[in-house]
Amino acid sequence: MEALVSSAIGMMTAAGVYLMLRQRTFPVIVGLTLLTYAVNVFLFTSGRLATNMPAIYGEGAPGYSDPLPQALVLTAIVISFGMTAVIVMMALGAFLEAGHDKVDMNDEDTPTDGGQK
Amino acid sequence: MMYHWISAPVLLPAIMGAAMVLLMRNDLLLQRIFALVSALGLLAVSVALLIAASNEGPEVYKLGDWPAPFGIVLVLDRLSALMVTLTAALSVSVLLYTIGSGWDARGRHFHALFQFQLMGICGAFLTGDAFNLFVFFEVLLIASYGLMIHSGGRDRLRAGVQYIAFNLVGSSLFLFALGAIYSITGTLNIADLAVKSAELTEGDAALFRVAAVMMMMVFAIKGALVPLQFWLPGTYSNAPGPVAALFAVMTKIGAYSIIRFGVIVLPPTHPITGTLIVDLILPAALITLILGALGILGATSLSRLAAFAAVASMGTAFIAVSGFTPESTAAAIYYMLHSTLAGAALFLISDLVSNRRAHDGLHQALPPIAQAGLISGLFMVSAIATAGMPPLSGFIGKLLVLDALRDQAALVWSVILVTSLMIILGFARAGSTLFWKAHASAPEGEAPSHPAQALAFVGLGSLIAGLVVMTLLAGPIIGWIEVTAESLFDPAAYIAANQLPEGN
């Protein structure tokens, strides 16, 4: 199980980083989503992998599965979900305003107008 | 004595922000009144906390009354109280400017987002738990995304996408670091981490080093340290002026977190990480300063110039941070206070200029703007402060940094002094293009007109007044900061305040 989980994290991270370095916003967002999946699974394993163990340690229990990483993962999932929603909205807005979805700003040399338009 | 008030800097903006969204969505006047009341209330509370923190030792607020390290705690000590006070003071000035210049009428929900941003910043300064620090980072970031694209525009939206993407990567990195640290030490409470990480076995050392460096990288993203500074110039120069001014305190969160973790959890005497953190930060900080100075020399517009000035000031602050001695940390804290006020003033001036003419580009001289005399005077004062020329606080700050790093004088002194000259040149060029050459290209007769916006100038003036106060009262302020830095380097009181159970 350790090999399966760790290779899954590794592959999701690699795919996420690759997609994140693309030039269009859509692959970048998919890459960021993959990266957050990898993070969530990684956080889950930080309490050690244990199956069929009680979350609360009691007398005679063979061991326990740490409940804290599960709480951390829940927080991380909610936050990354919200952040993904924000970046999708923003990317859509930028696409509609600019007419294309390139990530880099190659018209950087024009002076800013201080938001007058 | 101040026990329950410690949570006020987080709760007050949170309640105000929610009330603005739910109850006064359509009434800008009411929003303005409540935003000012909230900011002034925050300032009053933070000053009271500052006085309490300087009279007593660190105090811990247990959220939900759960004991550390199982519950989340807020820790009030001299440094966190000082940073919260700085945030509150900056927020009052920026709000006055925003209301005076009418920026909040150019889009919706400005004030609610502003309150949530304050909540995130104050929470990040106060928290005593590493995962809670992540949560407050996200709170301040999600509010900053909304503020950054306030009033929209093509360039602003596209810069916003880059800004969010960069910070999402940073957040993922932070979670990786936290997961790794939790799997090694079994705790995320900062004081508990300090105790546990010093007792780690050799087998966990490699993973702990990786996690520590990942954590520092996250703070370096926030603090715009090379090579993680790419988001800053585009974001700050495209954000609305007052928002960029508020963001001036956001980079300081990165520096604050590095001081907090670098001194308490990962000091240079740490058995596992040793001087690893110092060795990474010092070269990065030197390059940051050089890059910032080059950016100031080559800036194409006043807002980009102000953004690169923010990069350069973070370089100087991080050089001082990398000393990890009480003297250098005191210098870093004083310089951070100064550069927050000076950087914010520059962004507001750049906004004043771009509101009064077609653009704030530096490639050609345009006719003079309305109130040119006053604005150019304010520009000169904040340029002197930013460049670190006497008599203002930038000079004192740089002097402290140089004095604290005497033993590395050859490298550090030459970089700081040469870049100071470059920064002076950059500001002189910008000022002469914007304000002096303007008269040469002006058509005779007609005087430009623009509403006076007295309140905007009050907001900007209060920042400049803050710089003057920091200069005049430099002695007492530095004395207070030195005690703060010494207490940071003796973390026993900080750890004891968390009341950790014995041998857990």
Protein described:
With about 120 residues, chain A is mainly α. Chain A has one domain. Helices cover about 60% and strands about 0% of the residues of chain A. Chain A contains three helices and no strands. In chain A, α1 packs antiparallel against α2. Chain B is mainly alpha-helical and about 500 residues long. Chain B has one domain. Chain B contains 20 helices and two strands. Chain B starts with 7 loop residues before the first helix and ends in a 7-residue tail after the last helix. The chains are: A mainly alpha (about 120), B mainly alpha (about 500). Chains A and B meet through α2 and α3 of A and α5, α6, α9 and α14 of B.
Keywords, separated by commas or semicolons:
heterodimer; A: 117 residues; mainly alpha; 3 helices; 61% helix; 0% strand; B: 504 residues; two-stranded antiparallel ribbon; 20 helices; 2 strands; globular
Instruction: Name the average pLDDT of chain A.
Output: 84
| Sheet/helix structural class of chain A | mainly alpha
Rg on CA atoms of chain B, Å = 22 Å
Task: Give start-end ranges of low-pLDDT stretches of chain A.
Answer: 108-117
By DSSP, the count of extended strands of chain A is 0
Biggest interchain interface, per-side counts: A-B, 45 and 53 residues
Structural class of chain B: mainly alpha
Q: Largest sheet of chain B, order of strands side by side? A: 1-2
What's the number of domains of chain B? 1
Number of domain modules of chain A: 1
Choose one word for the global shape of chain A: elongated
Number of helices of chain B: 20
Taking the sheet with the most strands of chain B, its summary is: 2 strands, antiparallel
Rg of chain A (C-alpha, Å):
20 Å
Strand composition percent of chain A? under 5%
Strand-and-helix sequence of chain B, N→C?
HHEEHHHHHHHHHHHHHHHHHH
